[in-house]
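All the exercises in this workshop are built on plain-text protein records. A record pairs a protein's sequence with a compact description of its fold. Read left to right, the backbone structure tokens trace the chain's path through space. Once this layout is familiar, the rest of the handout is easier to follow. Here is such a record, shown just as it appears in the course material:
>
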Amino acid sequence: MPVPDPPPYPENLLSPKARERIERAWDEYDLIRKRALSALDTRYRAEPGGCADFMEYLGNGQAGIDFAESRIKAASAVLRVEAEEYGKLRLPGREFREIMEGKIDETAYSLEFSTLQSDALKAEFMRPAHQEPDEKPGSVGSSTEPVPAKDRVKAYMEKNHLDNSAFAKKINASVRTVGSVLAGVRVGKQTRIAVAKELRTTPDDLFPD
């Protein structure tokens, strides 16, 4: 299956500690995979006759089922931590889903998962823990505090590798104005409209106050 492009370098949104936790999850992935292969190899060697080739053995019968389940378990160990870490950023639901869909599709492609296996992972890991999928931060009924505009703008700039000058050009404003936005200083209506448009949201959502 083709792999859609996720948002560029979503890892840049994460803190060093978050990236370390994901790296440890990859260690767990490797451990699960090696333990499963070791157990299956022991069974393969203990069975009289059977398949002449170990890889053929992994693709058939109960061994094939156990091998497939071990790969799902290993992938879930990483995706669960990634979903937790990106969920902590309190991103808009759509952005969270785009990131996790990209992560899941990359995993499904590399491990040759079926469409049904991929769909199962998406059902489990594409919902942010902090809000409903389409709920906007700070909307009525939300139990979370809205993410300040300055933090959302900063995250957007980091994700797209924009410095203050480059972002200023995109919103047709001065570098000083961008500095005010990043400092949480109230800016004029036209600036709020331009910033919200660049982040593909509305001024009321981005600047609720």
